[in-house]
Each structure stands twice: as C-alpha cells, then as structure tokens.
Amino acid sequence: MVRPSTLLVALVVLACFASDAWACPTCKEDLANDPQGRGLATGFYYSILLMMTMPFAIIGMLGAVAYRSVKRAQIERDAAAVAKQPN
C-alpha cells in the first residue's frame, strides 16, 4: 500500500521535472516558435501521457477485479461456515 506522503513526494518531483521532460531540445525549440507547432506539441504531450498511463490503469483494473473476486469468495465461504455451525 502506498502511503500518502510517498505519493505526495512523487507528485512534487514529477511537477518539478515536467518541463525538463517535455521534448528533445531540437523539437521543443522548433515547435515552440510555430503557432501550429504548439498545438502539435501539446497533442504529442497528451498522447504520450495517455500511452504511459493506460497499462497501469488496465493492470490496476484487473487487479481490483481479482481482489474483489477473492474477497467475495472469502465472504461466501465464511457465511457457509457460519451456517453449518450447530446452534
């Protein structure tokens, strides 16, 4: 389980270095001077973010489904065990 303080530190570090990871220097300078290039650079930026986050979102969703399935099975097993106990 990730502690909130660890998550906060990771977000602060990410925010500090976001401008450094924008693009290679040549592409960044060429696209920054062109008005249409700014839109293209923004599109590249968001598409890269999407491609980076989707595997984590998919794996996280599958993990959550598996976790809920295991918990549901445990609850059903415990309920069956309580029902079988003599009063």
Care to give the gist of this entry?
The chain has helices spanning 4-17, 25-32, 35-84.
Give an account of the 3D structure.
The chain has one domain. The protein contains 3 helices and no strands. It has helices at residues 4-17, 25-32, 35-84. Helix 2 crosses helix 3. The longest helix has 50 residues, at 35-84. The chain is elongated, with a radius of gyration of 24 Å. The model has no long low-confidence stretch (mean pLDDT 82).
- What's the total helix number? 3
Oligomeric category: single chain
**What string gives the helices and strands in order?**
HHH
Low-confidence stretches: none
Average of pLDDT: 82
Tally of discrete structural domains: 1
SSE inventory with pairings:
Elements: H1 4-17, H2 25-32, H3 35-84
Which characteristics define this entry?
83% helix; mainly alpha; 3 helices; 87 residues
